[in-house]
């Protein structure tokens, strides 16, 4: 897998941290930078949009999502993001930060691996008020470029803790050992995707039986481990096709670790229902 690129330098609102916050009245990019970035991009950083009032649509990995009052959408590095033609609602916060910033936080946040395959979170009125309060503090801190990173990171940690809690509260229970194993499975797949890891090797890495791994992955994703890996590979193919990151089917297949381009083409059609040429034509 490719490494995550650094946060775009012109985006950062702090001299020492790669982070930016945007509200209806603050932080918007200049027309020149916005035009240069484009309305569709492959994300280089973690992104979230929290809508306090109103509604909007956002497209992530070619899937349209509706975000309403007290809902938060998050997107991850490498995902294809399309900015909506409409506004983000009448009141909102957008936040972006990259892996460098994330690595300086005191704890990890499992929701950023999206183990439940849900990128939209709804908050109760009380939680939404708390979330708004932290966003407002971050807004104040990022209004000055030389604010101490220690202060920013402390409140970013609080914000992500609130989001992480709400993400897992959907199931009405905290993450358990099976969740930890599923997260470990997803991390291993991401780190070794183009090597096409076998289910047996992943189970050995996670110190579980292949049967246990099957049950865990099936429980959280609705797919078998093999189906999960296949779908992730085809998603990566769709992303690269979207950005024309290939010159031929053969090159794309080899880049994704397939030794047989014909098999890759058949697998792509089986998963998406379209040939590679048909998929590319729909994008043009």
Automatic annotation (TrEMBL):
Q: Does the keyword Transcription regulation apply?
A: yes
The record's section on InterPro entries has:
Homeodomain-like_sf (IPR009057), HTH-like (IPR037923), HTH_AraC (IPR018060)
* Annotated transmembrane regions: none
Question: What keywords are assigned to this protein?
Answer: DNA-binding, Transcription, Transcription regulation
- Residues in domain HTH araC/xylS-type? 183-282
Q: Which PROSITE patterns match?
A: HTH_ARAC_FAMILY_2
Q: Name one Pfam family in it.
A: HTH_18
> SMART domains annotated for this entry?
HTH_ARAC
Which PANTHER family did the record assign? ARAC-FAMILY TRANSCRIPTIONAL REGULATOR, TRANSCRIPTIONAL REGULATORY PROTEIN
**The protein, known as:** Helix-turn-helix domain-containing protein
Q: Tell me the lineage of the source organism.
A: Bacteria, Pseudomonadati, Bacteroidota, Cytophagia, Cytophagales
